[in-house]
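User: Please fill in residues for this 338-position structure.
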């Protein structure tokens, strides 16, 4: 006898907690799309866990009617690694921000991705510290004037997707908070991927860094400033779909279609390439010189840390038995302290 899972809706994933983000924050859109995507996956709520660190984005577990952990600043990937390794039946999401994930949490984020733990990481990138009221973050642009850098930031910014691809994360993608259809598709693909799925979301902080992504979001400019990646298709963009990206040796360049240049001359996207060099090249394309790619940069199969770990545990049990912790504690020389 089989028991059918109940059909879930967006309302089933909504909690009774007041959402405490500033009115107009891009986090609302990400939350809404997550609630729309999860019912489509056929995963029971008791099998889903959201883990966060510290920051505005890290309030996310309170607003999802699933299990959740509001953990330590920057350490959500470490919590997620431990949980997924001991409970491989769970679907584990890490919610983080550009400050939480790339500053104090950079080390943990990097190792989670290189190990290819089967978790989904969503990084909200607003290029500012919002919760602590407007200091520059690891992704803030050079020269950024903030409360902590009144003369302008002198730090070179981190580019999250370049870090992820450099760590050879097996799924790497980017979306935009207001591009809701695209964002929903990306979140679903991340959820369905086996291995570490890393998603960067361009997210607006309308209080401390308003309109930072407007060039990629505004109706008047977005078709010229972004290029949507589609597996097996050429990189074409522009209001009239007449611009493209081709390789000139090892360097990308923007070209105009026509005048002897055809689609066949352009760079064709291959998200399934095992060699990550072209995906890394795409992650380095940015305004004002290039349109910024959105979509899936990389989606490959690779060994998964949690699966390999549990396989070793089972192998050890077969060879030496399940083990007895009390016997281990009392083995060898022991003594009593009085």
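Assistant: Residues filled in for all 338 positions:
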């Amino acid at each position: 006898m089989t028991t059918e899972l109940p059909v879930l809706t967006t309302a089933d994933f909504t909690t009774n907690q007041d959402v405490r983000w500033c009115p107009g924050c891009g986090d609302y859109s990400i939350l809404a799309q997550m609630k729309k995507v999860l019912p489509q996956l056929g995963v029971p709520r008791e099998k889903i866990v959201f883990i966060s660190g510290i920051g505005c984005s890290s309030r996310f577990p309170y607003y999802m009617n699933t299990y959740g952990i509001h953990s330590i600043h920057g350490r959500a990937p470490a919590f997620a690694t431990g949980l997924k390794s001991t409970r491989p039946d769970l679907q584990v999401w890490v919610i983080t921000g550009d400050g939480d994930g790339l500053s104090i949490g950079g080390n943990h984020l990097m190792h989670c991705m290189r190990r290819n733990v089967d978790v989904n990481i969503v990084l909200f990138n607003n290029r500012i510290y919002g919760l602590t009221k407007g200091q520059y973050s690891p992704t803030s642009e050079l020269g950024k004037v903030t409360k902590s850098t009144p003369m302008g930031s002198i730090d070179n910014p981190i580019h999250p997707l370049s870090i992820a691809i450099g760590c050879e994360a097996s799924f790497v993608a980017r979306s935009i908070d207001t591009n809701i259809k695209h964002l929903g598709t990306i979140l679903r693909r991340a959820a369905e991927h086996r291995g570490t799925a890393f998603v960067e979301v361009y997210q607006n902080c309308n209080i401390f860094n308003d309109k930072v992504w407007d060039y990629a979001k505004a109706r008047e400019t977005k078709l010229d400033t972004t290029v949507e990646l589609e597996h097996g298709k050429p990189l074409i963009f522009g209001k009239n779909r007449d611009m493209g990206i081709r390789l000139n040796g090892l360097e990308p360049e923007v070209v105009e279609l026509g005048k002897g240049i055809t689609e066949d001359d352009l760079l064709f996207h291959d998200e399934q390439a095992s060699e990550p060099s072209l995906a890394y090249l795409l992650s380095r394309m940015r305004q004002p010189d290039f349109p910024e790619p959105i979509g899936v940069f990389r989606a490959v199969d690779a060994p998964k840390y949690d699966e390999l770990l549990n396989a070793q545990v089972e192998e050890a049990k077969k060879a030496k038995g399940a083990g007895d912790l009390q016997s281990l504690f009392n083995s060898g020389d022991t003594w009593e302290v009085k």
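For context: The longest strand covers residues 292-299.
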